[in-house]
indole-3-pyruvate monooxygenase
Amino acid sequence: MEDQTVVLIVGAGPAGLATAACLSRLSIPYVIVEREDCSASLWRNRAYDRLKLHLAKEFCELPHMSYPKDAPTCIPKDQFVKYIDNYIECFNIRPKYHTAIESCSYDEGRKCWFSVARDLETSVVIRYTARFLVVASGENSAENIPAIPGLCGFAGDVIHSSRYKSGATYSGKNVLVVGCGNSGMEISYDLASHGANTSIVVQSPVHVVTKEIIRLGMTLVQKIPVSVVDDLVVRMSNFVFGDMSGHGIVRPKVGPLLLKAETGRSAVIDVGAVGLIKNGTIQVFGNISKIKGNIVEFEGGKKRTFDAILFATGYKSTANTWLKNGESMLNNDGLPKKQFPNHWKGANGLYCAGLAKRGLAGIAIDAKNIANDILSSYHA
């Protein structure tokens, strides 16, 4: 089978859907493909039960559609999925599901992107020809589990946060969470709340804030220099949480908003884990040195026995496994070479959406930029 289109969008997560909506409003033809059986599969199939959007709803809207007025400030997972479904219906987006891109390369002679895809249900090969290509397959394509000596021989359960749903099945068990970002801290809280003997590995300095403080900071930084806002955010957070260095948590020297802008690392929005760390319900450890059987040894020599290890260590992009000729835009990790906000455009009609570690707000910016840039050359 062969299919020609103006724009091929790879991925029907929020980034791909947002790009499709923006193209649709500009009457630019596109095809959107998705290897899974649904849109936003990370949210539908790989998110834990208690998950909410970590930021206030005004920072988490896709282009051209707001949340309902009665929606809570922080949108729960199920409500976000409903928002996605309404978004797809509103802009009449029709992703081609079960369609996996196997290779994509630029044809210099024909001045177009030539893609080979496979229908995962029928094994039929589809060849797409497109003038423009949008990589929207996401930062979260594949689980990232670090290499740790002895991990393969661990006697208990080893899972990634993408397969975690609830702490109910871990009640009474000794569980180690590796990773102290938002997912790691929230999962630790969920485990402890369900009666698991919970420990967490805090590998590096981290900012901990409340949802109210970070909302204020993100609002102020639109009008006030980031250094001033960061100073305020840190002072307010220190007032709320105090000095946590005695509990194994120290703040980075760079402020939370600047750190996010420079590295993509988000501040942790506390849901109750800090209180449990302070009262000893959740134990904090440093980096893991090695694992033997069900015994984990940490840097400094401490050893503990665990029934399960849960990795909240993020994901990695898989774009480079299928995209050829993408070196103008992506590095060896499948992420943009250029810094935000100049990351979204490569050469020969190549674009990326949602790869800048800027969350849903960044996705909205990417999608609008891409659609407007395509429009400027589509009619040229």
About this structure: The longest strand covers residues 125-135.
